[in-house]
């Protein structure tokens, strides 16, 4: 049995180090005293340059964190994922989303010794991945060339929504089909209702995206979309031009449930792809339709380059490892309970929402892989908005509030397609905010005082293209794996979301039976208020 993380010797050493060295650390002095600081605490990874020097740590902190990684058997845990072991222990599943972007010849990953020992079933899985990918890209191409289809409606929630949505938004400049993309996730009928109002059945392709094909919200939205389709001239008869067969596709691991629902055209994937890691699979079909097969493959290649870096680079020069360790450092030693995501990019406007699921659903856990209670906090609260908008809203608190909130700036070196002259202003603002957080402001009165010494990381991409975006998202996936491995939690299940679903189902039933036995007064009161006509 693995020791609890806070019982490891390195944990104790890090606590002492925090007390004696870091509590008093002043970043302004640190830069003045350490000429090598930027060099030591920054690095270039595939497609992403990271400046971690404005964080509240030193080279010594990193050395001790690396020792913690060693004592936590991080490398062995990472290699177990690469070997296809069932590391999602509560569901007895492998965790292989990275296989979805592995080339048939294994590409840069081939350098890993773990790969040399790959079992034959891994090779079979890789072949299946490519067969399905080819099938998916062929369908994407056919839809792209189908002039009749003008609107793509993706119906899905959580991992079957956020990934495709963040990527299609981010790669707006790369969309070359002239089609409209709609993402419907909320069970609130307004979301689907507004979309249905704007589309025509004969011109629409509905993608029903659900790994399980049982998620209540998605099923209700899909049923309503299907009914609307039939009510507006669509047909169940496959020989008709405007048929369900032609206008609905299911993206799921549960093909039987999709068929039962009445959708015959399905693209599958596997139980070893977690929902929040699934944008690289058939769930990525809207992305492939938007940017085309070649650019979809470029996105996979970018992610693969980051995978190869994570699986093969020494841990000390491994960006996901360094960031994951920084996350543990901030959460448990500095006691920072949140992290602000500040992408200086309109394209990345949904990144914080995407990362909320990725990080908080993965690492918002309180027991170890062995089911033992953890007495240290895990995932921080992830939140944020794009810059420069955030500067005119919550940045006030980041500069002068009493909580210290590490900020993660994400910026692009090159601008996109439109109004390139704005880009310089955008990026300079990002750098200036990081600088302001650190240097602070003094001597101009109490109201204007900014304490400074506030930490931030800065991630810089060359541009927002498919490959860089793929690498950036893979970086986050692996970073979350790293902090989860240090906490020794299972980052790949999500039992916490089950309870609410179960209770919602029960409330529906109780509403019908009016049996409130054993239900607390508040829940019962709210439910009964719903039924009152004189609200
Ligand atoms: O893709 P689905 O099976 O419909 O699941 C959609 C989402 O709902 C669940 O409740 C989980 O919390 C998410 O991890 C998942 O991505």
Write the layout of secondary structure elements.
Elements: H1 9-22, H2 27-33, H3 37-40, E1 42-45, E2 48-51, H4 59-71, H5 74-82, H6 113-116, H7 120-145, E3 151-155, H8 162-170, E4 180-184, H9 189-198, E5 204-209, H10 216-231, H11 244-247, E6 248-252, H12 255-261, E7 266-268, H13 285-291, H14 293-312, H15 319-333, E8 338-343, H16 351-363, E9 381-384, H17 395-400, E10 407-412, H18 421-439, E11 456-461, H19 466-487, H20 498-513, H21 521-531
Parallel strand pairs: 3-4, 3-5, 5-6, 6-7, 8-9, 8-10, 10-11
Antiparallel strand pairs: 1-2, 2-11
Number of strands: 11
**Strand adjacency order, main sheet:** 1-2-11-10-8-9
Taken from the alpha-carbon principal axes, the silhouette is globular
User: What count of helical segments does DSSP give?
Assistant: 21
Approximate strand percentage: 5-15%
Bound molecules: 6-O-phosphono-alpha-D-glucopyranose
> What is the CATH domain class of the domain at 120-291?
Alpha Beta
How much helical structure, as a percent, in the residues?
A: 40-55%
Give average pLDDT, whole number: 96
Largest sheet: number of strands, sense, barrel closure:
6 strands, mixed
Task: Calculate the terminal CA-CA distance, rounded to whole Å.
Answer: 56 Å
Radius of gyration: 25 Å
Q: What are the low-pLDDT stretches, counting only 5+ consecutive residues below 50?
A: none
CATH topology of the domain at 120-291: Rossmann fold
